[in-house]
Structure formats: C-alpha cells, structure tokens
Amino acid sequence: MERRGPRSNFASSLDRISRQLDTPEGYIRLSGPLEHDNIVNGDGLRAVLWTQGCPNHCPGCQNPETWDYEAGYLAKIDDLKKELKTFKGQAGLTFCGGEPFVQAKACKEIADWCRKELGWNVWSFSGFTYETIKEYSKEPWEFLKSLDALIDGPFILAQRDLSLKYRGSKNQRLLHLEQGTGKILSIE
C-alpha cells in the first residue's frame, strides 16, 4: 500500500519507526517548551508539543536540532497536563518534532487526556506515512487512532511548496481521521 517508493524504502521506514525512544514511565522527551496560540500547525488556535528524537533526518528539515534522541529534556507527563490546563481558548493540540511516532506511547497518553479532559481535537505531524504507521502497528498505530488529523510523509526539499496548508512539501498529505479507528475520512 506504500505509494512513495520501492518496497526497500518501506522496509527501511519500518526499521526507523521501530526505534522507539526509551523514556521512563510517565515521561516524554521534548525539544522545547509547550506553545499555545499557535496558528500554523493545525486548524484554529492550538497548543503545540515539540517532541525530541527523529530517525528520518530529512534534508532541509526546519528542526534538525530535534533529531538527536539524547538531546532535549525529559518532562513529566503530569506536569505537561497541568500546564495544558492553563491554556485558554485553544482548539486543540498538535504534536510536532522531532518525530512524535517514536514516542508513541507517551504521545497517546497526552492525546487521550487532552480529548477527554479539555475537549480538544488532536493532530500530529509525522515523517512516516500513514501506511508505514499502520504496517508497523504497535504503539504508533494506537497513537494514530487517537488523532483527528495526521500530516504524513517526509519533508522532501525538491518538492517544497510554501503555498500548501500545514505542509512543507507536495508529497505530504493532510489526513482527516476517524478518531478511535484511524480510518481515513478525507485527504487534502
């Protein structure tokens, strides 16, 4: 089902997504502080959580400082929840990075909490395609099923297009998902 290259690239993507970042229970590794009132990483005013660690290393990436799995800092998920509660007027939370899907278990916990406690919708960016996340399954697929939208695919510098809504290159898709199942409802 992978539509972005030969099968060998797909296998390589599966190897990269399997490199889940190892953090202590109840923690997530972040590259920077939580943001609020962000208008470029999803629909409406949004809180943004910047994850640390990315195995994709896309040439031209706007956040190469987030690649290192050991950089950034560990944050208590409970402390992040307390901080998110203080953000007023937000439509939702967006996971950026780095690569959120290499910390899928922690991201899912935060996503589920935001939906239940704050009533927010949840989006995520990923350098992996929907197909890779689904094929790998495990924690990344469970995290994906908690999302309302996914911007998927690696940033490809040769396909860079600043006119695209929420995306940096033409190969990336904005997938609207059925929360709870991960089924694609529509594609932009």
Kindly report the average pLDDT value.
Answer: 92
The tally of helices reads 5
How many independent structural domains?
1
- Note the gap between the termini: 18 Å
What is the secondary structure topology, with strand pairs?
Elements: H1 7-17, E1 27-30, E2 35-38, E3 46-50, E4 73-76, H2 77-85, E5 92-96, H3 104-118, E6 121-125, H4 130-136, H5 138-144, E7 149-152, E8 173-177, E9 184-187
Parallel strand pairs: 3-5, 5-6, 6-7
Antiparallel strand pairs: 1-4, 2-3, 7-8, 8-9
Characterization of this structure:
Helix 1 packs across helix 4, helix 2 (77-85) packs parallel to helix 3 and helix 4 (130-136) packs across helix 5. Helices cover 26% and strands 21% of the residues. A seven-stranded mixed sheet has the order 2-3-5-6-7-8-9, covered by helices on one side. Strands 1-4 form a two-stranded antiparallel ribbon. It has 188 residues and is of the alpha/beta class. It is globular and about 40 Å long. The protein has helices at 7-17, 77-85, 104-118, 130-136, 138-144; strands at residues 27-30, 35-38, 46-50, 73-76, 92-96, 121-125, 149-152, 173-177, 184-187. The two termini are 18 Å apart. The protein has one domain: TIM Barrel.
Task: Quickly describe the structure.
With 188 residues, the protein is of the alpha/beta class. Helix content is 26%, strand content 21%.
